[in-house]
Amino acid sequence: MIPLYRSFACFSAAASLLFSATVCVAQMGYPLVIDEPFTVRVLSGNDGKPVAHVHLIIIGGYDLDDIAHHLWEEETLTDDDGEAQITRPLASLPFVQVWVTKRHLCQGNPRASKFSIDRIRNYGLAAPNRCGISTAEDTPGVFTVFVKGKPVPPPPTADSDAEPAAEVVPASLPAPPPAPAAIAPSPTPPPGVRVIAWHRRTPKQP
């Protein structure tokens, strides 16, 4: 962390001819050791639902130039509620940017935006949403970011690593051939009638 200290300005003011007072105005400087974390909440810009298990890149600094040069950077994942806790030293810096990998931010020009951590901690803050009409109520200590796109499914567990068994579809069997037609029995000749069987002879070829 690069420290930055700001001087104290003192000025004298005469209240009247009877007395004069010396007033010293101290301007707070950074870095400050602040143990209180803040929360980054990622919501869908279309329907306002939490976006769980996405990869966040949190960049902090004193101004946009520090953020552009990644003065301080942390990476984390959102939980089932689409939230991630950010602690010091990044939480001790004055400004922050939040990026969601593989997601389009809904705030317009995210590279030119920086958000006050003091305001996030004291009042809550939400980035603009240009992807839809979803809004989020400001809650002290919570910074809400809207993204475009469907949530990433949770990582597979050990039980879901095995591929499901393929469904076995029985092959269709051919239709059985039709049964041969029944042969009618030869009529029985009456008594006294002799049946002579004869065959036609095929003449031989010369």
CATH superfamily of the domain at 38-148: Carboxypeptidase-like, regulatory domain
The CATH architecture of the domain at 38-148 is: Sandwich
Number of helices: 2
Average pLDDT rating: 75
Tags for this model:
disordered N terminus; mainly beta; 2 helices; five-stranded mixed sheet; 206 residues; four-stranded antiparallel sheet; Immunoglobulin-like; 11 strands
Task: Describe the fold and architecture.
This protein has 206 residues and is mainly beta. The chain has a domain at 38-148: Carboxypeptidase-like, regulatory domain (Immunoglobulin-like). It is built from 2 helices and 11 strands, in the order ββββαβββββαββ. It has helices at residues 64-68, 117-122, and strands at residues 9-13, 21-25, 38-44, 55-61, 72-77, 83-86, 95-100, 104-105, 115-116, 125-126, 142-148. The strands form 3 sheets. Strands 3, 6, 8, 10 and 11 form a 5-stranded mixed β-sheet that branches. A hairpin with a 7-residue loop joins strand 1 (9-13) and strand 2 (21-25). The longest helix is centred in the middle third of the chain and has 6 residues, at 117-122.
